[in-house]
Protein: 4-hydroxy-3-methylbut-2-enyl diphosphate reductase
Amino acid sequence: MEIILAKSAGFCFGVDRALKKVYDGLGNEPIYTYGPIIHNTQVVEELASKGVKVIHDLSELGHLPHGKVVIRSHGISKNEQDLISSSGFGMIEATCPYVKTIHKCVEKASKKGHHIIIVGNKNHPEVTGIKGWCQQPVYIIEDITQIDEIPFDSNIVYEVVAQTTFNLGLYQEILIRLQKLNFHVIINETICKATQERQKEALEIAKNVDVMLVIGSKHSSNTIKLYEICKEQCEHTYHIESIEEFELKVLNGHSVIGITAGASTPKKLIKEVISNVRNAE
Ligand code: SF4
Structure:
């Protein structure tokens, strides 16, 4: 059996950087992450064993001992940032620099009076964070048909940004459609390079394998997108969180297995999958 492992599988720069910041911050003061630092239970549990607590709402700070709040790579809104700053708690800023660039972009565009179109999942924390830096009307769309719901006005300039992990092909389709409209639309290329490379590599591998395994949390937006991209190319694509949930007998009769993983999948999990797939031969 041949295994083709994506070079881009596993932690991206932003997730790696955020995790390092949490470990570097460990000391005498309590550390709180605003939301799980990554979509991986094992990593979150390991950090919990070192005293790192996850909070889900900033109101929780009102009854917690003072410490530092970690802003994860997805980033947060300006209001939330101001709330933490005024709470008396310290802040460990681990927003991915690529996400921070989008915050600055929409903030600057808003100051010019431009309206913002965010292409992404309206419930994703990165998108709600970006929305929170806009001071003008914001439209959040995630498919082409939703363009028709935007009340375009020829007196308004629209700036478009995408969630960093959005499907590149779909973003391009949406941009082509937006450019065909007779309105002033400024496009910003904000899908991160790491995501683009991961998606392109996954697509190429999925085209040439019998079975494709995509490893990562079922809550991880970038892993779900990887799965969707691979599934279009390879009928036998499986999204798994760990090897325990995968029926190895599915591999029987197949000779080439592709493996990729989302941006918050630890190397250890990827290695476990590879060694189990090898042993299944
Ligand atoms: S996927 Fe890209 S933008 Fe998101 S955290 Fe990783 S490097 Fe940053």
